[in-house]
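Risk register update: the risk of archive-format incompatibility is retired. Evidence:
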Amino acid sequence: MSKALRPIEDSRRTLAAQVAERIRHAILNRDLMPGSRINQPQLAEDLNVSLVPVREALKTLEAEGLVTITPRRGAFITEISLDDLDELYFARQLIEGEGIRIALPKLDDDDFAFLRQTIDAMKVATDAGDIHSFMQRNREYHMRIYQAMNNRHLVQVIDAMWERSELYRFRYMFVTRNAETIHQEHEAILVALMNRDTELAVKLARDHIWHTRVGLYEQISQDMSISSPATVGISDRKSAD
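Archived output:
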């Protein structure tokens, strides 16, 4: 049994939330592989819970895009898909770019200090090769910005897209992106935010997402032994007009 799927003992959160977190962690760490069928009775036994919280957790993960539930067939770990990658990262460019625009006027010195500390923590994590710490700090960096929007619905949408993106990033991030490049992009975004340069901050944030998408697409294409089509992102679309 995977360590991620050891019996649940913490009672501070609902069982369904705890089960969802365990399954999510197992998926992102590739203990549960894309395309594999989820044996719900076995999962319930491994986690020492009934089937009810397992089913509730799977519905949550389906909404996040990590699990696919098919009538009469059961639940499966969502397959990695280049089409999904394209659609997901294009949606992120659109929504997160506007998120920057909304959040920037509301960011204060405490936010900037947090972003600076988080960038430094990411640098330490990358130097140590600690992907889990890096991914956690990376998410904290970006979500701190979006939380400043003070719009829980938009934050929930962005958070859900990030959950879905983790399926790709955990597997390929350190293969496809140079750590120093990521660090420089985070620095540039922070400087633009501190200078209150809205248009530059939006552009840098969208480019940051696009660069990650390009690296992920190339690596996954190699794994699938297919060629990358001539697709474009927001920056490319603008320059092509």
